[in-house]
């Protein structure tokens, strides 16, 4: 199994955005050494506790600090932008880091309604154009507009030897069908969807007409040396998500101490139990077993892990323990031949 990382650049309570971004860069360097396949960074806007509004800028730094791991967005929220602008940015990255760049694409707003207006004006109108935006971006990436098209002579320079690889991210059958229709690789957000993920991924495969469908499934994981330690680390993340859902998130991921001091009401306890159904928490052996079960259920050879903890060192350790449980470093050598 291939394992990859989705980093939302979480800010921990009491820390700064700069510290969060520095932790992201350090984690990417570690992931490169541990044998992870991809390192993607998310895009969010004006959301407390998340420090990455511009994945391409962060990826430029990460690319320079790593050697072989694929880097990408998880995701560029395409309705916020003109496809030409995105093509330029990711072509530049692919020129600097050949054969290593992915463009994960999504259509979520990534922030409040006011933020969407500030970024793109009428966001909902842009969302309706998503299929056309994907087509336009693809033409810019490969410079293959029809000769009579307005943009036939426009180049999203620099044009790399190997174009960035686009992926469509989603959590619904609608996104799965769109990815299949566009013959794009698909990333399903298991960690953030309440729907039947297996059915959604099957819908993607069933509607894929030509070539080979390719799927990555993203899951929330927290790993520690003991089950008890993993559950304690996870508690602060669960509190943070409860606070986010209630619009009460303050300074970022709360500490374990803050989580212990918080008194959960019955509604919040139900919410937490539901969240834990989509999250893997445990020892390296427990995490490996549950990831392999998910892999078999989704019939995919690659899982992408998102881990948000208050303590950045606990996050690093979680990814390290998982890599060791799967012998990723040795496996990666096999992939590289």
Structural key phrases:
single chain; 337 residues; alpha/beta; 8-stranded parallel barrel; 14 helices; 48% helix; globular; oxidoreductase activity, acting on paired donors, with incorporation or reduction of molecular oxygen; LLM class flavin-dependent oxidoreductase; Luciferase-like_dom; Luciferase-like_sf; Bact_Lucif_Oxidored
Question: Can you describe this structure?
Answer:
With 337 residues, the protein is of the alpha/beta class. The protein has one domain: Luciferase-like domain (TIM Barrel, Alpha-Beta Barrel). The protein has 14 helices and 9 strands. The protein has an 8-stranded parallel β-barrel with strand order 1-2-3-4-5-6-7-9, surrounded by 9 helices. Helix 1 (17-34) packs parallel to helix 13 (312-325), helix 7 (173-181) runs parallel beside helix 8 (197-207) and helix 12 (284-298) crosses helix 13 (312-325). The longest helix is centred in the C-terminal third of the chain and has 19 residues, at 227-245. The model has no long low-confidence stretch (mean pLDDT 95).
Outline of the structure:
It contains 14 helices and nine strands.
CA-based shape:
globular
Share of residues in helices: 40-55%
Strand order of the largest sheet: 1-2-3-4-5-6-7-9
- Look at the structure and name the CATH superfamily: Luciferase-like domain
Low-pLDDT regions: none
Number of DSSP-assigned strands? 9
Which structural category do the helix and sheet elements fall into? alpha/beta
Largest sheet geometry: 8 strands, parallel, barrel
Strand content: 15-25%
Cα-to-Cα separation, first versus last residue: 16 Å
Pfam families: Bac_luciferase
Organism: Oceanobacillus chungangensis
Protein name: LLM class flavin-dependent oxidoreductase
InterPro entries: Bact_Lucif_Oxidored (IPR050766), CmoO-like (IPR019949), Luciferase-like_dom (IPR011251), Luciferase-like_sf (IPR036661)
